[in-house]
From TrEMBL:
<keyword id="KW-0663">Pyridoxal phosphate</keyword>
<dbReference type="GO" id="GO:0030170">
    <property type="term" value="F:pyridoxal phosphate binding"/>
</dbReference>
<dbReference type="GO" id="GO:0005737">
    <property type="term" value="C:cytoplasm"/>
</dbReference>
<dbReference type="GO" id="GO:0005980">
    <property type="term" value="P:glycogen catabolic process"/>
</dbReference>
<feature type="modified residue" description="N6-(pyridoxal phosphate)lysine">
    <location>
        <position position="707"/>
    </location>
</feature>
<keyword id="KW-0808">Transferase</keyword>
<dbReference type="InterPro" id="IPR035090">
    <property type="entry name" value="Pyridoxal_P_attach_site"/>
</dbReference>
<keyword id="KW-0119">Carbohydrate metabolism</keyword>
<comment type="function">
    <text>Allosteric enzyme that catalyzes the rate-limiting step in glycogen catabolism, the phosphorolytic cleavage of glycogen to produce glucose-1-phosphate, and plays a central role in maintaining cellular and organismal glucose homeostasis.</text>
</comment>
<dbReference type="InterPro" id="IPR011833">
    <property type="entry name" value="Glycg_phsphrylas"/>
</dbReference>
<comment type="similarity">
    <text>Belongs to the glycogen phosphorylase family.</text>
</comment>
<keyword id="KW-0963">Cytoplasm</keyword>
<protein>
    <recommendedName>
        <fullName>Alpha-1,4 glucan phosphorylase</fullName>
        <ecNumber>2.4.1.1</ecNumber>
    </recommendedName>
</protein>
<dbReference type="GO" id="GO:0008184">
    <property type="term" value="F:glycogen phosphorylase activity"/>
</dbReference>
<keyword id="KW-0328">Glycosyltransferase</keyword>
<dbReference type="InterPro" id="IPR000811">
    <property type="entry name" value="Glyco_trans_35"/>
</dbReference>
<dbReference type="Pfam" id="PF00343">
    <property type="entry name" value="Phosphorylase"/>
</dbReference>
Length: 859
């Protein structure tokens, strides 16, 4: 049981109530007797915040004193969700607060519901960053996160009566003060954009003029679980350097004065809602908001603003230790969460060369021993590229440095260098190391270049991230192999295997089991006869549940908890949407960003197939069918027309199917609007099965697959991403796999392109479903034609190829569900074998094999 270090301000119930009442009267300046839930939540949050601040302060002082090597996790997204419950659980104060607020006449669950999600992320990548912060603090590792403090997080999703997704802003900070952050108005840096970069004879450059913007720090406290260690997430807010441009103001040009101040504030105003592509504006047929984001310049500004402020902060902290820059990599590791912070590489070069006057070669050594790059996708359309003219305009000095990286090599004198840069030659042609290793292989040189030829030329950020990093990793075994054999193949052949590796993603069991499924957590502690403070930080201990799969009583308890979690979800749907859910049905869940590669379309087509099959059955046959409820949730990028059309099909199919008296006891479908971390916390513990059905080779890892399985839901999926490792861990007999394998995908796509076979021939069952949709079964069929045509024409994501085996897998699910006891055993064995997928394991792999950092315990 966690004892040491548990000293905090509010450890017993009476000091909790005292502290809450005190905050009501002082911080909120309100009376305790007519307080609403919101006020009570705010006061309780401020009370927990007091504890967090003490721990946070002590931790930061301790790290400063000890000066260990630190790691910095640079991510444009941190999808934190709510903090209150998580903080209480990590501090071990949940019971005291529950009792305390009850004494004050409130209900804990109601108070928890008052908090708005911090939704500063799109999906998997942002949530992964949040899980890694939790694990870093829990493992007592000196890790800081760096991100942006967006005024608006991921948009709120509304669904119109026609089934159209509508986007609303998410002003998550509008409710007044955010108790979980500490404004650090004293910590600020100036960040420059535009201007001119003039090369000096000594190899340095003078970057002057342009626009200067202020970055101001806000620190978010990240408590570890059952430890005093409380790490920091530093988020930057942009501000005009002076209130407004005084020169313009004095000259009477008020408009210009205000405009430049507005453009500074705009940098951190909103999270970009695209995941996987920046380039779908041309497909943007929606008339709605977010049109102001179509320009790419603001996104690039966000990236530079954030990397520049973070690096200035990191360098300042390093300088305080008083060591020479040659030792920088012994004190600093910087992890790039995808290519979004790749500018950290030329920016660190700029600081070292122009400001610290370190020669090119030494500076490059420092950078390439400090920076690490995680890739999260191999989808070609998702690889980040920036037009050279835009880079030259916005970041002239960085563009010079990128050219210099291209050109820099043993064979080049400074003079050749400058000349080449003046001529703006881009592709390496002469005497480069690549040329030496592969003489005459011009195709290879072009493929590997940092600059892609074209109109305009573009900087390939993945190539820059790769050559500027110490290590490159993918996020699941299959994905890491694909990185090495596809997008970075040439670099593996050039630099060798050892730079490239894998760290399979993980999830924090604190939020994704203890917090979201407290009853299951309690049953596990009782059964293992160990306190949760032990197994939550040593998740392999779940293996101890295996023998209990054979225990009838245990299975009963296990199943009863799943049932209550279904009822909790049903209650949520009832109160938020006014819909009744059949809790005697199998719960089948697919929740994730809407994307063609994730194939929500396959799922809804499967649902419609099931509906048509049920309609054809006799009443007697129907009696044998197991009832099923299918849940969907997820957001589509505002400009992603096909993804929005998929939502529309799901919503309208649901409307027709749910209203059919012949089938509605056996099949219902729900699209739950406005998917969020908090909604996931209700959905995940309730699932019997969840779907992770991407075309093989397209989903880098997936992390919700891990969350469902940890909560005893079984997985239906393709042989893709982390599904593969989950199956290895829990046993293939406990998952439902279907579909073509990765090596087949390329050939099949080729066939679709050059020897297309009509859907009617390839897959009659699917053709029938498509015909029903076209025929208007779910409203005007014409509306769906663009979506259906993606399948009838190229079928890039191979829905026709996988449909039959998908339906087959769902039939296996029905079969397996008939044997209830055996099903519960599968569920127990699944949870018991999920230890590997703790983000503690993942973060320790980063700490040990990449960063070389060690725990620094705050005592
Ligand atoms: C890039 C350029 C311009 C605008 C936006 C973007 C952008 C933003 C977000 C590109 C990608 C993302 C997010 C990607 C993401 O969430 N990837 C997921 O990462 C998870 C964690 O590793 C994996 O589990 C998922 O498989 C992967 O899809």
């Amino acid at each position: 049981v966690w004892k040491e270090g548990s000293r905090s301000v509010n450890t017993d119930v009476s000091s909790v109530t005292k502290s809450i009442v005190n905050h009501v009267q002082t911080s909120l300046a309100r009376q305790a007797y007519n307080l609403d839930n919101l006020g009570a939540y705010q006061a309780a949050a401020l009370s927990v915040r007091d504890d967090l601040i003490l721990n946070w302060n002590e931790t930061q002082m301790h790290y400063t004193r000890k000066a260990p090597k630190r790691a910095y996790y640079l991510s444009l997204e941190f999808l934190m969700g709510r903090t209150f419950d998580n903080a209480l659980l990590n501090l071990g104060l949940k019971d005291q607060y529950r009792e305390g607020v009850t004494k004050l006449g409130f209900n804990m669950e109601d108070l928890l519901e008052q908090e708005r999600d911090a939704a500063l992320g799109n999906g998997g990548l942002g949530r992964l960053a949040a899980c890694y912060l939790d694990s870093s603090a829990s493992q007592e590792l000196p890790v800081w996160g760096y991100g942006l403090r967006y005024q608006y997080g991921i948009f709120q999703q509304l669904i119109s009566p026609e089934g159209q997704q509508l986007e609303q802003p998410d002003p998550w900070l509008a409710g007044g003060e955010n108790p979980w952050e500490l404004p650090r108005l004293d910590v600020s840096y100036e960040v420059r954009f535009y201007g001119t970069a003039e090369r000096l004879p000594d190899g340095r450059a003078l970057w002057q003029g342009g626009q200067e913007v202020l970055a101001v720090a806000y620190d978010v406290m990240v408590p570890g679980c059952y430890t005093k260690n409380t790490n920091n997430l530093r988020l930057w807010e942009s501000k005009p350097k002076r209130g407004f441009d005084l020169n313009s103001f004095n000259a009477g040009d008020y408009e210009h004065a205000v405009e430049s101040s507005n453009s500074a504030a705009a940098i951190t105003s909103v999270l970009y809602p695209n995941d996987h592509t920046n380039n779908n504006e041309s497909r943007d047929r929606s008339q709605l908001s977010y049109t102001h984001l179509v320009g790419k310049e603001l996104r690039l500004k966000q990236q530079y603003f954030w990397t520049a402020a973070s690096l200035a902060d990191i360098v300042r902290r390093f300088k305080n230790i008083g060591k020479p820059f040659s030792e920088f990599p012994d004190y600093v590791a910087i992890q790039l969460n995808d290519t979004h912070p790749t500018l950290a590489i030329p920016e660190l070069m700029r600081i070292l060369i122009d400001e610290e006057e370190i020669p090119w070669g030494k500076a490059w050594d420092i950078v390439t021993n400090t920076v690490f790059y995680t890739n999260h996708t191999v989808l070609p359309e998702a690889l980040e590229k920036w037009p050279v003219p835009l880079m030259e305009h916005l970041l002239p000095r960085h563009m010079q440095i990128i050219y210099d990286i291209v050109l820099h090599d043993e064979g080049f004198s400074c003079k050749v260098h400058r000349q080449a840069v003046l001529l703006k030659s881009t592709v390496l042609t002469k005497s480069s190391a690549v040329e030496k290793k592969f003489p005459g292989d011009r195709d290879r040189l072009a493929r590997m270049s940092l600059i892609e030829e074209g109109f305009p030329k573009q900087v390939r950020m993945a190539h820059l991230a790769c050559i500027g990093s110490r290590k490159v990793n993918g996020v699941a075994e299959l994905h890491s192999d694909l990185v090495k054999t596809t997008i970075l193949k040439d670099f593996v052949e050039f630099e060798g295997q050892s730079k490239f590796s894998n760290v399979t993603n993980g999830i924090t069991p604190r939020r994704w089991l203890d917090q979201c499924n407290p009853e299951l957590s309690a049953l596990i502690s009782k059964t293992l006869k160990v306190d949760k403070s032990v197994w939550l930080k040593d998740l392999d201990r779940l293996k101890g549940l295996l023998p209990y799969a054979e225990d009838v009583e245990f299975r009963k308890e296990w199943a009863a908890i799943k049932q209550r979690n279904k009822e909790r979800l049903a209650h949520h749907v009832e109160t938020t949407l006014g819909l009744t859910v059949n809790t005697n049905a199998m719960f089948d869940v697919q929740i994730k960003r809407l994307h063609e590669y994730k194939r929500q379309t396959l799922n809804i087509l499967g649902v419609i197939h099931r509906y048509l099959t049920l309609k054809q059955m006799s009443a007697a046959e129907r009696k044998k069918v197991n009832p099923r409820v299918v849940f969907f949730a997820g957001k589509a990028a505002p400009g992603y027309y096909i993804a929005k059309l998929t939502i529309r099909l799901i919503v309208n199919a649901a409307r027709i199917i749910n209203a059919d008296p012949d089938t509605r006891d056996l099949l219902t479908v729900y699209f739950l609007p406005d998917y969020s971390v908090s909604l996931a916390e209700v959905l995940i513990p309730s699932s019997d099965i969840s779907q992770h059905i991407s075309t093989a080779g397209t989903e880098a890892s997936g992390t919700s697959n891990m969350k469902f399985c940890l909560n005893g839901g079984l997985l239906v999926g393709t042989v893709d991403g982390a599904n593969i490792e989950i199956a290895e861990a829990v046993g293939e007999n406990n998952v439902f796999f279907f579909g073509h394998l990765t090596p087949a995908v390329e050939d099949l796509r080729y066939q679709h392109m050059y020897r297309p076979v009509p859907v009617e021939e390839k897959c009659p069952a699917l053709a029938k479903v498509l015909d029903k949709i076209s025929g208007g079964m779910f409203g005007d069929g014409g509306v769906y034609e663009p979506l259906l045509n993606t399948i009838r024409q190229n079928d890039y994501y191979l829905i026709t190829e996988d449909f039959d085996s998908y339906i087959g897998a769902l039939e296996m699910v029905d079969q397996a569900y008939l044997d209830k006891e055996e099903w519960i055993k599968k569920s127990i064995r699944t949870t018991a074998n999920m230890g590997k997928f703790s983000s503690d394991r993942a973060i320790l792999e980063y700490a040990e094999s990449f960063w070389s950092i060690e725990p620094v315990k705050v005592t």
